[in-house]
Design a protein that fits this description.
Length: about 300
């Protein structure tokens, strides 16, 4: 069985995590891409990580920093800067719309973005990352869980994207399972689930983008596993929210079927034994990983089964 190995580190230590890759066609295709050893972009995308310094002050400061870089280049573009006392989901939706207008799509970037200096381009991309992390942070705080809604995102530079085929859509799921690796959203825009959750009335019609591609990019869920009752409630809520705006979504060609790409596609699950987590609870595992704050390496390799007599 093939394994995906992820190496976390801090200034003093490192930790290898082992994940068993699923025997599905989409998982195999993803494995091929990861094995190409693309360089890692933004190796610090630890979201809602225990003991993290990423709090509201961090995100507001970081977002304003990126906005200032854009504002210095194009003073009429940025409508306002963040004030920590005024942050809410509607404000985040407005600024996400700003990001969409500045960058365009993966296949059709705006003239503004293409003509901007590299520093400005990096600021726009960083702004998008920070806004998504901040949204997740705010929701996690509101839930007030002992076990945080933690995840780790790994995005590779200059990686290829490929269109999903019909059977790939069968694997999308809204059920989050602790220690599972999922193919990350590799579009510019918002998946329909985020549009519904954020009650986003500001997003441009063309930027509501169910995932149609896969790449080597990944995210690993370290949040608590969703139970069946919670999963069923979530599915009912999503359908109810979709139905409220059904006419609008269908006018965009977004029908309630598997092509909505609700959730993510799982491709691997954590091997607790190989990772050194045997007999540990999920909360103990994520707590033990709290000291790490960068990703240094990813690897694909065949696991070796040793038989003891």
């Amino acid at each position: 069985m093939s394994q995906f190995i992820l190496t976390l580190a801090n200034k003093l230590n490192h930790k290898d995590l082992y994940f068993d890759i699923f025997n599905t066609n989409i998982a195999k295709k993803w494995t091929i891409e990861v094995s190409k050893n693309y360089s890692i972009c933004n190796n610090d995308r630890f979201v809602n990580w225990p003991n993290s310094k990423k709090d509201s002050n961090y995100y507001v400061t970081e977002l304003n920093k990126q906005l200032k870089i854009v504002d210095e280049y194009a003073p009429t573009v940025v409508p306002f800067f963040f004030n920590i006392e005024q942050v809410n989901q509607s404000l985040l939706n407005i600024l996400h719309k700003l990001f969409e207008d500045l960058i365009g799509t993966v296949d059709n970037p705006t003239e503004f973005y293409k003509n901007s200096p590299q520093e400005v381009q990096k600021a726009i991309l960083r702004f998008n990352i920070m806004i998504h992390e901040f949204e997740s942070y705010v929701k996690n705080i509101a839930m007030n869980k002992i076990h945080p809604d933690s995840k780790l995102v790994v995005v590779f530079g200059e990686r290829n994207r490929y269109e999903l085929i019909d059977e790939d859509y069968d694997h999308f799921t809204l059920k989050s399972v602790f220690g599972t690796v999922y193919i990350n959203y590799c579009e510019l825009g918002k998946p329909i689930l985020d549009v519904l959750r954020d009650q986003d009335e500001h997003i441009g019609d063309s930027n509501i983008r169910p995932l149609q591609y896969y790449s080597a990019d990944l995210q690993i869920q370290f949040s608590p596993t969703m139970g069946e009752d919670e999963f069923n409630r979530t599915m009912q809520w999503v359908k109810m929210q979709y139905d409220k705006r059904k006419e609008f979504f269908e006018s965009l060609g977004l029908f309630y079927d598997k092509k909505l790409s609700l959730g993510l596609i799982p491709v691997a699950s954590i091997n607790r034994n190989d990772s050194g987590f045997l007999n540990m609870t999920d909360f103990e595992i994520i707590s033990s990983l709290s000291e790490f704050n960068i990703v240094t390496k990813t690897e694909i390799r065949e696991s070796i089964t040793v038989l003891y007599r």
